[in-house]
Design a protein that fits this description.
- The chain is built from six helices and 21 strands.
- The chain is of the alpha+beta class and 339 residues long.
- The protein has two domains: 189 residues, outer membrane lipoprotein receptor (LolB), chain A (Clam), CATH 2.50.20; 82 residues, 2-Layer Sandwich (Phosphorylase Kinase, domain 1), CATH 3.30.200.
- The N and C termini lie far apart (95 Å).
- InterPro entries: LolA/LolB/LppX, Sporulation_related.
């Protein structure tokens, strides 16, 4: 009898140990959440690839986070070394373009109003909000699949998130409805105990520091585009829409090109050289941030504004949805469209 009792006790202990060692979807999510909530700050390095049809754009990404919702996201384009910064502090949200000595300021709920594949908090929030979240195990990694929330791109529907045994997010891949990967983020390193100087998240300090570090390549790029000689056209047009007029206006420096599109879905596209301001310029604006192509764009219900390869683009229409405006903006190319 004693032998039987001892055997039962041993089996019970083994069962308990086995059960305790098995992570469930809930326990992994809870531990990830706890890890973020307990940190006073983190800093991570990542590489991000944005895929647009046959083109792809690669960024070096550095994310700095400090408790009480201070964020600093550096996005450096690998092809031209052009850097933009998304900064969030107590004063608001900014998009900084140091090479132009210019920043846009807006009151926004970023980063919580849209999926952000390079931010731990956003990726985790998408996972927690999906009632149909799935988790599988591959080697020592946990593989999650969840829905995403890209307001200006409904074709992006879900993401695959790879979490390692130390509960670090290692990779995020965002897919469209056809299962094509559109965004790929690989996290190279993360410091969950990062500390920052008092002025690290201050606007003026960031503009001054990055401007001082601005390299010759960036300055030469801006100088070369100071004279815009030819229009740059969108390759995608809504059905029944066509280029009606093209007008060039001389400016003190360079020229401005105004393209007017008529038809069922009319819109206007304004292009001009993106010139550096003599003094730091802060432009209050409305709308949300959207990352596409090689730039951070500002998108609202009727317009899209962004800088690409030294040219500033402003696309406006009262007859198009913000998603369709973004689709047109993403298609802008040097190849002409038929009039």
């Amino acid at each position: 009898m004693k032998k039987i009792l001892c055997s039962l006790v041993v089996l019970f202990c083994i069962a308990c140990l086995t059960g305790c060692g098995k992570e469930t979807k809930k326990t992994v999510l809870d531990k990830l959440s706890d890890k973020i909530e307990k940190t006073n700050g983190y800093k991570l390095e990542a590489e991000m690839e944005l895929i647009n049809n046959e083109d792809s754009y690669k960024y070096d990404v550095t994310v700095s986070y400090e408790k009480n919702d201070n964020f600093r996201v550096s996005l450096r384009n690998q092809s031209n070394n052009h850097e933009q910064i998304i900064l969030k502090n107590d004063d608001g949200v900014y998009v900084l373009t140091p090479t132009l000595n210019k920043s846009f300021k807006f009151q926004s709920k970023w980063p919580y109003n849209n999926s952000q594949s390079y931010l731990y908090q956003s990726v985790l929030e998408d996972m927690k909000n999906d009632k149909n979240l799935t988790m599988s195990k591959k080697g020592s990694n946990y593989i999650f699949t969840s829905t995403v929330n890209y307001k200006n791109n409904a074709s992006l529907t879900h993401q695959e998130v790879v979490v390692d045994k130390n509960l670090n997010i290692k990779k995020v891949t965002v897919y469209d409805t056809d299962e094509n990967a559109q965004i790929k983020v690989s996290f190279n390193s993360i410091d969950m105990n990062a500390k920052f100087d008092d002025d690290y998240f201050v606007l003026e300090q960031n503009m001054q520091t990055i401007s001082n570090e601005e390299d010759t390549t960036s300055r030469n790029t801006m100088q070369e585009i100071s004279d815009l000689e030819e229009a740059v056209y969108p390759m995608y047009l809504p059905e029944g829409t066509y280029l009606e007029t093209e007008k060039t206006v001389d400016l003190d420096e360079g020229s401005r090109i105004i393209l007017t599109f008529a038809g069922e879905t009319p819109f206007m596209l304004v292009e001009e050289p993106a010139l550096k301001e003599d003094e730091m310029l802060v432009i209050p604006t409305s709308g949300d941030l959207d990352l596409f192509r090689d730039s951070v764009a500002i998108v609202d219900e009727t317009s899209v504004n962004f800088v690409s390869d030294g040219v500033e683009y402003y696309l406006v229409s009262s007859d198009m949805s913000s998603e369709e405006l973004v689709n047109v903006a993403k298609s802008i190319s040097v190849m002409p469209v038929n009039k």
